[in-house]
Specification:
It is built from three helices and nine strands. By secondary structure, the chain is an alpha+beta fold. The chain has two domains: about 40 residues; about 60 residues, no CATH class. The strands form three sheets. Strands 5-6-7-8-9 form a five-stranded antiparallel beta sheet, covered by helices on one side. Strands 1-2 form a two-stranded antiparallel ribbon. Strand 1 and strand 2 form a beta hairpin.
């Protein structure tokens, strides 16, 4: 017995309901993985949109700095929600952490001297009442 799935301009033919169900699950899985990959790429690309100024004294950079004032405040620092990857900026230690889909967590690294000079996370942390003296250190401040 053949089963038909009429989709407007074309018709899919299946020999059993099992084949039809497998095809539907496969299509849903492909779209879910595609959405996950697109979300991860968008989150990674939006993390830092500045270019240049990688050598001391970090001059000559261009682009838009991270808008720390638009982030949520937590008890330890700032939080930015992404499509797939959430970012945490610990204002007590200067540590950047991430979380994927709320399940996989990890520490990335501490703010680099370039990040401290160019993006100035310490300014927003201080404005929100955190003490940044232990990590916001640079001759250029």
């Amino acid at each position: 017995m053949l089963y038909y799935l009429n989709m407007g301009h074309f018709t899919l033919t299946f020999r059993s309901y099992i084949a039809l169900i497998k095809s539907i699950f496969s299509a849903v899985g492909i779209f879910a993985i595609l959405a996950l990959v697109i979300g991860m790429v968008a989150d990674i690309r939006s993390a830092d949109s500045t270019k240049g100024g990688y050598e001391y004294p970090f001059a000559g950079w261009s682009g838009k700095t991270i808008d720390f004032s638009a982030m949520y405040q937590t008890k330890d620092g700032l939080y930015k929600s992404g499509y797939v990857i959430d970012q945490f900026f610990n204002c007590h230690t200067g540590m950047i952490s991430w979380e994927i889909l709320g399940v996989i967590k990890g520490d990335f690294r501490k703010f680099s001297e370039r990040a401290i000079v160019v993006h100035k996370p310490q300014d927003e942390c201080r404005a929100r009442g955190y003490n940044t003296d232990s990590w916001a250190i640079s001759d250029l401040l």
